[in-house]
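Hi, here's the filled form for the chain we discussed.

Project: internal
Contact: R.S.
Residues: 563
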Amino acid sequence: MKNLLIVLVIALAGGTLYYMAQQSGKQGYEPNGALEYVPADTAVFSGQLHPFPLRDYLVATANNYQNPSSIPLDMLETPQERFFYALFEQYASQLKQPDEFIKSFGLDNRVEGYFYTLGLIPVMKLQIKEPAAFYGQLDAAEQSSGWSHTVRKVGELNVRAYELDDESGDIQLLVSDHQGWLTMTLAFSGQDPVTLEQSLGLKAVENNLTQTTLLKDIVKRHGFLSESVSYINHQTIVAALTKGEGLMGQQLTKLAELSDASELQEIRTAECQQEMAGIAANWPMTVAGLTHMSVDERHADMDVRTVIESNNSKVMSALQSLRGFIAPAASRMGDSVFSVGLGLDSDNLAASLNQVWQEMMTPQMQCLPLAAMQSELSQANPAMLGMFSGMAQGAKGVSVVVSGFELDEYGEPKSVDAMVSLAVEDPQTLYAMSASFLPQLAGVQLPADGSPIDVTDMLGLPPIGNVMLAAKGKHLVLYTGSRSTELANELGVVDSIKPNGIMVMTADYKKVFTPLFDVMEAMGEEIPPEIEGMKDANMKVLFDFDVTDKGLVFDTRMAAEAE
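And the returned structure, exactly as it came back:
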Protein backbone atom coordinates (compact mmCIF):
# COMPACT_ATOMS: atom_id res chain seq x y z
CA MET A 1 0.00 0.00 0.00
CA LYS A 2 2.90 2.35 0.74
CA ASN A 3 4.25 1.75 -2.76
CA LEU A 4 0.88 2.69 -4.24
CA LEU A 5 0.84 5.93 -2.26
CA ILE A 6 4.33 6.81 -3.43
CA VAL A 7 3.34 6.13 -7.04
CA LEU A 8 0.20 8.26 -6.66
CA VAL A 9 2.04 11.24 -5.19
CA ILE A 10 4.70 11.04 -7.87
CA ALA A 11 2.02 10.74 -10.55
CA LEU A 12 0.18 13.77 -9.20
CA ALA A 13 3.36 15.83 -8.91
CA GLY A 14 5.55 14.59 -11.75
CA GLY A 15 2.74 14.09 -14.24
CA THR A 16 1.34 17.51 -13.60
CA LEU A 17 4.76 19.17 -13.76
CA TYR A 18 5.37 17.48 -17.12
CA TYR A 19 1.94 18.50 -18.40
CA MET A 20 2.22 22.09 -17.23
CA ALA A 21 5.68 22.42 -18.73
CA GLN A 22 4.09 21.85 -22.14
CA GLN A 23 1.18 24.28 -21.70
CA SER A 24 0.65 27.83 -22.45
CA GLY A 25 -2.02 36.53 -23.04
CA LYS A 26 -2.63 38.72 -20.32
CA GLN A 27 -0.43 38.77 -17.25
CA GLY A 28 -1.57 35.76 -15.24
CA TYR A 29 -0.29 36.65 -11.79
CA GLU A 30 -3.39 38.31 -10.40
CA PRO A 31 -6.19 36.55 -8.43
CA ASN A 32 -8.05 34.23 -10.78
CA GLY A 33 -9.98 31.80 -8.61
CA ALA A 34 -7.00 29.54 -8.03
CA LEU A 35 -3.85 31.47 -7.10
CA GLU A 36 -5.47 32.85 -3.94
CA TYR A 37 -5.40 29.29 -2.61
CA VAL A 38 -1.68 28.80 -3.28
CA PRO A 39 0.47 29.69 -0.23
CA ALA A 40 3.36 32.05 -0.89
CA ASP A 41 5.74 29.56 0.75
CA THR A 42 4.60 26.54 -1.26
CA ALA A 43 7.57 24.25 -1.83
CA VAL A 44 6.41 23.11 -5.27
CA PHE A 45 4.38 25.03 -7.83
CA SER A 46 3.49 24.52 -11.48
CA GLY A 47 0.95 26.82 -13.05
CA GLN A 48 -0.64 27.30 -16.44
CA LEU A 49 -1.31 30.98 -15.95
CA HIS A 50 -3.13 31.62 -19.24
CA PRO A 51 -5.65 29.36 -21.01
CA PHE A 52 -3.75 26.75 -23.00
CA PRO A 53 -5.14 25.73 -26.44
CA LEU A 54 -5.69 22.14 -25.40
CA ARG A 55 -7.79 21.08 -28.37
CA ASP A 56 -5.40 22.55 -30.94
CA TYR A 57 -2.48 20.87 -29.18
CA LEU A 58 -4.19 17.47 -29.14
CA VAL A 59 -5.17 17.75 -32.81
CA ALA A 60 -1.63 18.70 -33.84
CA THR A 61 -0.03 15.88 -31.84
CA ALA A 62 -2.68 13.16 -32.21
CA ASN A 63 -0.51 11.01 -34.51
CA ASN A 64 2.29 10.89 -31.96
CA TYR A 65 0.49 9.05 -29.18
CA GLN A 66 1.17 5.37 -28.66
CA ASN A 67 -1.59 2.95 -27.84
CA PRO A 68 -1.13 1.82 -24.23
CA SER A 69 0.00 -1.75 -23.67
CA SER A 70 -3.04 -3.54 -22.33
CA ILE A 71 -2.62 -5.41 -19.07
CA PRO A 72 -5.46 -7.63 -17.84
CA LEU A 73 -6.83 -5.93 -14.75
CA ASP A 74 -6.99 -9.23 -12.84
CA MET A 75 -3.17 -9.34 -13.01
CA LEU A 76 -3.03 -6.30 -10.74
CA GLU A 77 -3.10 -7.08 -7.04
CA THR A 78 -5.24 -4.37 -5.46
CA PRO A 79 -8.45 -2.54 -6.43
CA GLN A 80 -6.53 0.72 -6.18
CA GLU A 81 -3.97 -0.40 -8.78
CA ARG A 82 -6.74 -1.64 -11.06
CA PHE A 83 -8.59 1.67 -10.71
CA PHE A 84 -5.65 3.87 -11.66
CA TYR A 85 -4.65 1.63 -14.53
CA ALA A 86 -8.22 1.52 -15.87
CA LEU A 87 -8.40 5.33 -15.64
CA PHE A 88 -5.09 5.62 -17.47
CA GLU A 89 -6.33 3.34 -20.26
CA GLN A 90 -9.49 5.43 -20.62
CA TYR A 91 -7.34 8.53 -20.87
CA ALA A 92 -4.72 7.16 -23.28
CA SER A 93 -7.16 5.39 -25.59
CA GLN A 94 -8.94 8.64 -26.45
CA LEU A 95 -5.97 10.94 -27.08
CA LYS A 96 -6.04 10.22 -30.80
CA GLN A 97 -9.64 11.59 -30.91
CA PRO A 98 -9.23 15.06 -29.40
CA ASP A 99 -12.90 16.11 -29.52
CA GLU A 100 -14.01 12.85 -27.95
CA PHE A 101 -11.31 13.13 -25.29
CA ILE A 102 -12.26 16.69 -24.33
CA LYS A 103 -15.95 15.85 -24.18
CA SER A 104 -15.46 12.58 -22.27
CA PHE A 105 -13.39 14.25 -19.56
CA GLY A 106 -15.56 17.37 -19.32
CA LEU A 107 -12.83 19.78 -20.36
CA ASP A 108 -12.93 22.92 -22.47
CA ASN A 109 -10.97 23.68 -25.63
CA ARG A 110 -8.73 26.00 -23.60
CA VAL A 111 -7.74 25.24 -20.00
CA GLU A 112 -5.77 26.51 -17.04
CA GLY A 113 -4.34 24.26 -14.37
CA TYR A 114 -2.13 24.25 -11.27
CA PHE A 115 -0.16 21.93 -9.07
CA TYR A 116 1.18 23.05 -5.70
CA THR A 117 1.62 21.92 -2.13
CA LEU A 118 0.00 23.00 1.10
CA GLY A 119 2.88 21.99 3.30
CA LEU A 120 3.27 18.31 2.44
CA ILE A 121 -0.18 17.97 0.87
CA PRO A 122 -0.22 17.88 -2.96
CA VAL A 123 -3.04 19.76 -4.67
CA MET A 124 -3.93 19.68 -8.35
CA LYS A 125 -6.51 22.04 -9.86
CA LEU A 126 -7.84 22.04 -13.40
CA GLN A 127 -10.53 24.12 -15.02
CA ILE A 128 -13.54 21.90 -15.71
CA LYS A 129 -16.47 22.55 -18.02
CA GLU A 130 -18.65 19.48 -17.34
CA PRO A 131 -17.80 17.90 -13.97
CA ALA A 132 -20.38 15.14 -14.52
CA ALA A 133 -18.42 13.88 -17.53
CA PHE A 134 -15.22 13.63 -15.50
CA TYR A 135 -17.03 11.82 -12.71
CA GLY A 136 -18.37 9.45 -15.35
CA GLN A 137 -14.78 8.48 -16.17
CA LEU A 138 -14.15 7.80 -12.49
CA ASP A 139 -17.32 5.72 -12.29
CA ALA A 140 -16.21 3.63 -15.27
CA ALA A 141 -12.83 3.00 -13.64
CA GLU A 142 -14.58 2.06 -10.39
CA GLN A 143 -16.75 -0.46 -12.22
CA SER A 144 -13.72 -2.01 -13.92
CA SER A 145 -11.64 -2.19 -10.76
CA GLY A 146 -14.09 -2.95 -7.99
CA TRP A 147 -12.88 0.07 -6.02
CA SER A 148 -15.48 2.62 -4.99
CA HIS A 149 -15.66 5.98 -3.29
CA THR A 150 -17.62 7.37 -0.41
CA VAL A 151 -19.10 10.87 -0.27
CA ARG A 152 -17.52 13.12 2.31
CA LYS A 153 -19.03 16.43 3.37
CA VAL A 154 -16.61 19.34 3.79
CA GLY A 155 -18.58 22.45 4.63
CA GLU A 156 -21.33 22.52 2.01
CA LEU A 157 -19.22 20.68 -0.57
CA ASN A 158 -19.73 17.04 -1.51
CA VAL A 159 -16.34 15.39 -2.01
CA ARG A 160 -15.50 11.97 -3.41
CA ALA A 161 -13.17 10.15 -1.02
CA TYR A 162 -11.12 7.11 -2.07
CA GLU A 163 -9.42 5.14 0.70
CA LEU A 164 -5.78 4.65 -0.29
CA ASP A 165 -4.85 2.68 2.81
CA ASP A 166 -7.21 -0.23 3.34
CA GLU A 167 -5.64 -1.17 6.65
CA SER A 168 -5.85 2.11 8.55
CA GLY A 169 -8.00 4.37 6.41
CA ASP A 170 -5.63 7.20 7.30
CA ILE A 171 -5.07 8.42 3.74
CA GLN A 172 -7.69 9.43 1.20
CA LEU A 173 -7.64 10.70 -2.35
CA LEU A 174 -10.21 13.49 -2.59
CA VAL A 175 -11.86 14.62 -5.83
CA SER A 176 -14.28 17.55 -6.01
CA ASP A 177 -15.33 20.49 -8.14
CA HIS A 178 -16.06 24.01 -6.99
CA GLN A 179 -16.73 27.17 -9.01
CA GLY A 180 -15.44 25.70 -12.25
CA TRP A 181 -12.29 24.12 -10.81
CA LEU A 182 -11.69 20.39 -10.42
CA THR A 183 -9.53 19.55 -7.42
CA MET A 184 -7.59 16.38 -6.62
CA THR A 185 -5.71 16.23 -3.35
CA LEU A 186 -4.78 13.94 -0.48
CA ALA A 187 -6.27 14.00 3.00
CA PHE A 188 -4.80 12.50 6.14
CA SER A 189 -6.38 11.57 9.46
CA GLY A 190 -5.88 14.36 11.97
CA GLN A 191 -5.43 16.92 9.23
CA ASP A 192 -6.06 20.54 10.11
CA PRO A 193 -9.64 21.35 8.90
CA VAL A 194 -8.55 24.77 7.66
CA THR A 195 -5.87 23.23 5.44
CA LEU A 196 -8.43 20.80 4.06
CA GLU A 197 -10.82 23.65 3.19
CA GLN A 198 -7.98 25.57 1.56
CA SER A 199 -6.98 22.60 -0.57
CA LEU A 200 -10.55 22.22 -1.82
CA GLY A 201 -10.87 25.91 -2.68
CA LEU A 202 -13.34 26.73 0.08
CA LYS A 203 -11.08 29.10 2.00
CA ALA A 204 -8.36 31.35 0.60
CA VAL A 205 -4.84 31.35 2.00
CA GLU A 206 -4.03 34.59 3.82
CA ASN A 207 -0.45 34.92 2.58
CA ASN A 208 -0.92 33.66 -0.96
CA LEU A 209 1.04 33.75 -4.19
CA THR A 210 -0.82 36.73 -5.64
CA GLN A 211 0.62 38.88 -2.85
CA THR A 212 4.22 38.28 -3.93
CA THR A 213 6.28 39.07 -7.03
CA LEU A 214 7.82 35.60 -7.11
CA LEU A 215 6.28 34.47 -10.40
CA LYS A 216 7.08 37.78 -12.12
CA ASP A 217 10.63 37.63 -10.81
CA ILE A 218 11.20 34.12 -12.16
CA VAL A 219 9.82 35.10 -15.57
CA LYS A 220 12.02 38.19 -15.72
CA ARG A 221 15.12 36.42 -14.43
CA HIS A 222 15.08 33.72 -17.07
CA GLY A 223 13.23 35.30 -19.97
CA PHE A 224 10.27 32.92 -19.74
CA LEU A 225 6.95 33.54 -21.39
CA SER A 226 4.35 34.50 -18.79
CA GLU A 227 2.05 31.63 -19.82
CA SER A 228 3.54 28.93 -17.62
CA VAL A 229 5.86 28.86 -14.60
CA SER A 230 7.03 26.00 -12.39
CA TYR A 231 9.43 25.86 -9.47
CA ILE A 232 10.74 23.86 -6.54
CA ASN A 233 11.83 26.07 -3.65
CA HIS A 234 14.85 24.37 -2.08
CA GLN A 235 15.15 26.97 0.67
CA THR A 236 11.57 26.42 1.82
CA ILE A 237 12.14 22.66 1.98
CA VAL A 238 15.40 23.01 3.94
CA ALA A 239 13.84 25.46 6.41
CA ALA A 240 10.95 23.04 6.97
CA LEU A 241 13.26 20.08 7.49
CA THR A 242 15.85 21.72 9.72
CA LYS A 243 13.86 24.39 11.59
CA GLY A 244 10.25 23.23 11.35
CA GLU A 245 9.31 26.51 9.67
CA GLY A 246 6.08 27.04 7.76
CA LEU A 247 3.16 24.67 7.28
CA MET A 248 5.43 21.97 5.85
CA GLY A 249 7.69 22.19 8.90
CA GLN A 250 4.72 21.95 11.26
CA GLN A 251 3.39 18.90 9.43
CA LEU A 252 6.80 17.22 9.45
CA THR A 253 7.12 17.83 13.17
CA LYS A 254 3.69 16.31 13.80
CA LEU A 255 4.43 13.26 11.66
CA ALA A 256 7.73 12.74 13.47
CA GLU A 257 5.96 12.90 16.84
CA LEU A 258 3.32 10.41 15.75
CA SER A 259 5.86 7.93 14.38
CA ASP A 260 8.53 8.45 17.04
CA ALA A 261 10.99 9.08 14.19
CA SER A 262 14.39 10.43 15.19
CA GLU A 263 15.64 11.42 11.73
CA LEU A 264 14.37 14.98 12.03
CA GLN A 265 16.18 15.53 15.31
CA GLU A 266 19.45 14.60 13.62
CA ILE A 267 19.17 17.52 11.22
CA ARG A 268 17.53 20.02 13.58
CA THR A 269 20.78 20.85 15.29
CA ALA A 270 22.28 24.33 15.08
CA GLU A 271 25.08 22.99 12.86
CA CYS A 272 22.69 21.38 10.38
CA GLN A 273 20.43 24.41 10.32
CA GLN A 274 23.33 26.70 9.45
CA GLU A 275 25.13 24.43 6.98
CA MET A 276 22.06 23.22 5.12
CA ALA A 277 20.73 26.76 4.89
CA GLY A 278 24.05 27.76 3.35
CA ILE A 279 23.79 25.03 0.71
CA ALA A 280 20.21 26.02 -0.06
CA ALA A 281 21.23 29.66 -0.40
CA ASN A 282 23.76 28.61 -3.04
CA TRP A 283 21.17 26.45 -4.83
CA PRO A 284 17.89 28.23 -4.01
CA MET A 285 15.40 26.99 -6.60
CA THR A 286 14.74 24.80 -9.60
CA VAL A 287 12.56 26.73 -12.05
CA ALA A 288 10.97 25.94 -15.40
CA GLY A 289 9.04 27.84 -18.02
CA LEU A 290 8.29 28.26 -21.69
CA THR A 291 10.69 30.26 -23.85
CA HIS A 292 8.72 29.72 -27.05
CA MET A 293 5.25 28.43 -27.92
CA SER A 294 3.31 28.22 -31.17
CA VAL A 295 0.25 25.98 -31.28
CA ASP A 296 -2.60 25.57 -33.73
CA GLU A 297 -4.43 22.62 -35.31
CA ARG A 298 -1.62 22.02 -37.80
CA HIS A 299 1.41 22.17 -35.57
CA ALA A 300 2.69 22.45 -32.00
CA ASP A 301 6.14 23.89 -31.32
CA MET A 302 7.29 24.54 -27.76
CA ASP A 303 10.56 25.18 -25.93
CA VAL A 304 10.72 24.43 -22.20
CA ARG A 305 13.68 25.64 -20.14
CA THR A 306 14.53 24.22 -16.72
CA VAL A 307 17.18 25.91 -14.58
CA ILE A 308 18.73 24.63 -11.38
CA GLU A 309 19.66 28.04 -10.05
CA SER A 310 23.02 28.56 -8.41
CA ASN A 311 24.66 31.42 -6.54
CA ASN A 312 27.93 29.53 -6.12
CA SER A 313 30.15 31.51 -8.50
CA LYS A 314 33.20 29.29 -7.96
CA VAL A 315 31.35 26.09 -8.92
CA MET A 316 29.63 27.77 -11.86
CA SER A 317 32.92 29.16 -13.13
CA ALA A 318 34.56 25.74 -12.86
CA LEU A 319 31.69 24.01 -14.67
CA GLN A 320 31.59 26.67 -17.39
CA SER A 321 35.26 26.02 -18.08
CA LEU A 322 34.22 22.46 -19.04
CA ARG A 323 32.15 23.73 -21.97
CA GLY A 324 33.42 22.61 -25.34
CA PHE A 325 32.50 22.71 -29.02
CA ILE A 326 29.51 20.93 -30.56
CA ALA A 327 29.21 20.75 -34.35
CA PRO A 328 26.39 23.06 -35.51
CA ALA A 329 24.74 20.18 -37.41
CA ALA A 330 24.27 18.27 -34.15
CA SER A 331 22.08 21.08 -32.79
CA ARG A 332 19.80 21.50 -35.80
CA MET A 333 16.56 19.77 -34.86
CA GLY A 334 14.88 18.07 -37.81
CA ASP A 335 17.86 18.15 -40.19
CA SER A 336 18.96 14.62 -39.29
CA VAL A 337 17.53 11.29 -38.17
CA PHE A 338 19.19 11.80 -34.82
CA SER A 339 22.28 13.49 -33.44
CA VAL A 340 24.33 13.66 -30.27
CA GLY A 341 26.91 16.27 -29.34
CA LEU A 342 29.16 16.38 -26.30
CA GLY A 343 31.15 19.55 -25.72
CA LEU A 344 33.94 18.96 -23.24
CA ASP A 345 37.25 20.79 -22.98
CA SER A 346 39.71 18.03 -22.12
CA ASP A 347 42.39 20.56 -21.18
CA ASN A 348 40.20 21.91 -18.36
CA LEU A 349 38.58 18.64 -17.29
CA ALA A 350 40.81 17.68 -14.36
CA ALA A 351 41.21 21.24 -13.02
CA SER A 352 37.48 21.97 -13.27
CA LEU A 353 36.32 18.80 -11.54
CA ASN A 354 38.98 19.23 -8.89
CA GLN A 355 37.71 22.77 -8.20
CA VAL A 356 34.16 21.46 -7.80
CA TRP A 357 35.41 18.66 -5.55
CA GLN A 358 37.34 21.13 -3.39
CA GLU A 359 34.21 23.28 -3.02
CA MET A 360 32.25 20.25 -1.85
CA MET A 361 34.95 19.29 0.63
CA THR A 362 35.30 22.71 2.29
CA PRO A 363 34.51 23.81 4.84
CA GLN A 364 34.52 20.62 6.87
CA MET A 365 30.89 20.00 7.81
CA GLN A 366 29.81 19.56 11.43
CA CYS A 367 26.26 18.42 10.59
CA LEU A 368 26.50 14.62 10.89
CA PRO A 369 24.67 13.64 7.66
CA LEU A 370 26.67 16.20 5.65
CA ALA A 371 29.91 15.12 7.29
CA ALA A 372 29.17 11.52 6.29
CA MET A 373 28.62 12.62 2.69
CA GLN A 374 31.91 14.51 2.70
CA SER A 375 33.68 11.43 4.02
CA GLU A 376 32.37 9.38 1.11
CA LEU A 377 33.28 12.06 -1.43
CA SER A 378 36.83 12.18 -0.10
CA GLN A 379 37.35 8.74 -1.62
CA ALA A 380 36.57 10.07 -5.12
CA ASN A 381 39.40 12.53 -5.69
CA PRO A 382 39.22 13.51 -9.39
CA ALA A 383 42.92 14.36 -9.67
CA MET A 384 43.63 11.07 -11.47
CA LEU A 385 41.48 12.32 -14.37
CA GLY A 386 44.49 14.37 -15.40
CA MET A 387 46.05 11.20 -16.84
CA PHE A 388 43.06 10.64 -19.11
CA SER A 389 42.70 14.24 -20.23
CA GLY A 390 46.40 14.33 -21.13
CA MET A 391 45.83 11.61 -23.72
CA ALA A 392 43.17 13.74 -25.43
CA GLN A 393 45.00 17.04 -25.17
CA GLY A 394 43.36 19.78 -27.20
CA ALA A 395 40.08 17.89 -27.70
CA LYS A 396 37.04 20.14 -27.30
CA GLY A 397 34.09 17.93 -28.15
CA VAL A 398 32.65 15.13 -30.24
CA SER A 399 29.50 15.12 -32.38
CA VAL A 400 27.59 12.33 -34.11
CA VAL A 401 25.06 13.14 -36.83
CA VAL A 402 23.07 10.42 -38.62
CA SER A 403 21.47 12.04 -41.66
CA GLY A 404 19.89 8.89 -43.11
CA PHE A 405 19.96 5.12 -43.31
CA GLU A 406 18.47 2.30 -45.35
CA LEU A 407 17.74 -1.26 -44.29
CA ASP A 408 17.64 -4.31 -46.53
CA GLU A 409 14.80 -6.82 -46.56
CA TYR A 410 16.36 -8.59 -43.57
CA GLY A 411 16.58 -5.47 -41.46
CA GLU A 412 20.35 -5.16 -41.82
CA PRO A 413 21.97 -1.77 -42.62
CA LYS A 414 22.14 -1.30 -46.39
CA SER A 415 23.53 2.21 -46.42
CA VAL A 416 24.27 4.88 -43.83
CA ASP A 417 24.74 8.62 -44.16
CA ALA A 418 26.51 9.69 -40.98
CA MET A 419 29.32 11.80 -39.57
CA VAL A 420 31.44 11.61 -36.44
CA SER A 421 33.50 14.73 -35.78
CA LEU A 422 36.04 15.54 -33.11
CA ALA A 423 36.83 19.20 -32.45
CA VAL A 424 40.52 19.48 -31.64
CA GLU A 425 43.18 22.19 -31.78
CA ASP A 426 45.59 20.02 -33.79
CA PRO A 427 43.86 17.22 -35.76
CA GLN A 428 47.12 15.98 -37.28
CA THR A 429 48.73 15.36 -33.88
CA LEU A 430 45.65 13.56 -32.57
CA TYR A 431 45.50 11.43 -35.73
CA ALA A 432 49.16 10.46 -35.36
CA MET A 433 48.55 9.47 -31.75
CA SER A 434 45.46 7.45 -32.70
CA ALA A 435 47.26 5.74 -35.60
CA SER A 436 49.89 4.46 -33.16
CA PHE A 437 47.15 2.38 -31.51
CA LEU A 438 45.69 1.17 -34.84
CA PRO A 439 48.16 -0.89 -36.88
CA GLN A 440 45.83 -0.61 -39.89
CA LEU A 441 46.59 3.13 -40.10
CA ALA A 442 50.33 2.82 -39.58
CA GLY A 443 52.15 4.71 -42.30
CA VAL A 444 48.93 6.22 -43.70
CA GLN A 445 49.28 9.98 -43.99
CA LEU A 446 46.31 12.26 -43.40
CA PRO A 447 46.39 15.11 -45.96
CA ALA A 448 46.81 18.52 -44.37
CA ASP A 449 44.71 20.20 -47.05
CA GLY A 450 41.49 18.53 -45.88
CA SER A 451 41.39 15.86 -48.59
CA PRO A 452 39.80 12.64 -47.30
CA ILE A 453 41.22 9.12 -47.28
CA ASP A 454 39.05 6.02 -47.65
CA VAL A 455 39.37 3.91 -44.48
CA THR A 456 36.54 1.46 -45.15
CA ASP A 457 38.80 -1.55 -45.72
CA MET A 458 41.52 -0.39 -43.32
CA LEU A 459 39.12 -0.41 -40.38
CA GLY A 460 37.23 -3.51 -41.52
CA LEU A 461 33.92 -1.67 -41.60
CA PRO A 462 30.73 -3.29 -43.00
CA PRO A 463 29.71 -2.46 -46.60
CA ILE A 464 27.47 0.51 -45.82
CA GLY A 465 29.26 2.95 -48.13
CA ASN A 466 32.71 4.48 -48.49
CA VAL A 467 33.83 5.67 -45.06
CA MET A 468 36.14 8.66 -45.31
CA LEU A 469 38.52 10.22 -42.79
CA ALA A 470 39.71 13.81 -43.08
CA ALA A 471 41.14 16.74 -41.17
CA LYS A 472 38.70 19.55 -41.82
CA GLY A 473 39.99 22.75 -40.25
CA LYS A 474 40.12 22.06 -36.52
CA HIS A 475 38.09 18.86 -36.82
CA LEU A 476 38.98 15.23 -37.30
CA VAL A 477 36.02 13.84 -39.22
CA LEU A 478 34.88 10.30 -40.07
CA TYR A 479 31.95 10.27 -42.48
CA THR A 480 30.03 8.45 -45.20
CA GLY A 481 27.19 9.57 -47.47
CA SER A 482 26.44 12.65 -49.54
CA ARG A 483 24.82 14.75 -46.82
CA SER A 484 27.59 13.96 -44.34
CA THR A 485 30.16 14.95 -46.96
CA GLU A 486 28.50 18.37 -47.08
CA LEU A 487 28.49 18.62 -43.28
CA ALA A 488 32.16 17.64 -43.10
CA ASN A 489 33.05 20.32 -45.64
CA GLU A 490 31.06 22.86 -43.60
CA LEU A 491 33.30 22.13 -40.61
CA GLY A 492 36.32 22.84 -42.77
CA VAL A 493 35.39 26.51 -42.93
CA VAL A 494 34.65 26.84 -39.21
CA ASP A 495 37.71 28.73 -38.00
CA SER A 496 36.83 28.83 -34.32
CA ILE A 497 36.03 26.04 -31.89
CA LYS A 498 35.05 28.40 -29.09
CA PRO A 499 32.89 26.76 -26.41
CA ASN A 500 29.21 26.60 -27.41
CA GLY A 501 27.71 24.01 -25.07
CA ILE A 502 28.03 20.79 -23.10
CA MET A 503 25.50 18.34 -24.50
CA VAL A 504 22.76 18.21 -27.12
CA MET A 505 20.59 15.45 -28.58
CA THR A 506 18.00 15.57 -31.36
CA ALA A 507 15.70 13.02 -32.98
CA ASP A 508 13.15 12.98 -35.79
CA TYR A 509 10.61 10.28 -34.94
CA LYS A 510 9.36 9.92 -38.51
CA LYS A 511 12.86 9.45 -39.94
CA VAL A 512 13.73 6.98 -37.19
CA PHE A 513 10.64 4.77 -37.36
CA THR A 514 9.57 4.83 -41.03
CA PRO A 515 12.43 2.60 -42.34
CA LEU A 516 11.90 0.17 -39.47
CA PHE A 517 8.18 -0.16 -40.12
CA ASP A 518 8.74 -0.49 -43.89
CA VAL A 519 11.06 -3.46 -43.35
CA MET A 520 8.70 -5.11 -40.86
CA GLU A 521 5.78 -4.80 -43.28
CA ALA A 522 7.89 -6.11 -46.18
CA MET A 523 8.86 -9.13 -44.08
CA GLY A 524 5.24 -9.70 -43.06
CA GLU A 525 6.03 -9.16 -39.40
CA GLU A 526 3.41 -7.84 -37.05
CA ILE A 527 4.23 -4.47 -35.54
CA PRO A 528 4.30 -4.76 -31.73
CA PRO A 529 1.39 -2.88 -30.17
CA GLU A 530 3.82 -1.04 -27.90
CA ILE A 531 5.25 0.89 -30.86
CA GLU A 532 2.41 0.68 -33.39
CA GLY A 533 1.24 4.13 -32.35
CA MET A 534 4.54 5.56 -33.59
CA LYS A 535 3.83 4.50 -37.18
CA ASP A 536 2.33 7.87 -38.03
CA ALA A 537 4.47 9.87 -35.62
CA ASN A 538 5.59 13.22 -36.98
CA MET A 539 7.50 14.76 -34.12
CA LYS A 540 10.96 16.25 -33.70
CA VAL A 541 12.64 16.71 -30.34
CA LEU A 542 15.76 18.41 -29.01
CA PHE A 543 17.36 18.20 -25.57
CA ASP A 544 20.18 20.54 -24.58
CA PHE A 545 22.23 20.86 -21.40
CA ASP A 546 24.51 23.80 -20.67
CA VAL A 547 25.97 25.78 -17.78
CA THR A 548 25.53 29.53 -17.50
CA ASP A 549 26.13 32.08 -14.77
CA LYS A 550 22.51 31.47 -13.71
CA GLY A 551 22.92 27.76 -13.08
CA LEU A 552 22.48 24.39 -14.77
CA VAL A 553 20.25 24.87 -17.81
CA PHE A 554 18.17 22.16 -19.51
CA ASP A 555 16.33 23.06 -22.72
CA THR A 556 13.73 20.77 -24.27
CA ARG A 557 12.09 21.54 -27.60
CA MET A 558 9.25 19.61 -29.22
CA ALA A 559 7.74 20.22 -32.65
CA ALA A 560 4.86 18.15 -34.03
CA GLU A 561 2.97 18.39 -37.31
CA ALA A 562 -0.54 17.10 -37.98
CA GLU A 563 -0.87 14.86 -41.03
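Let me know if anything looks off before we file it.
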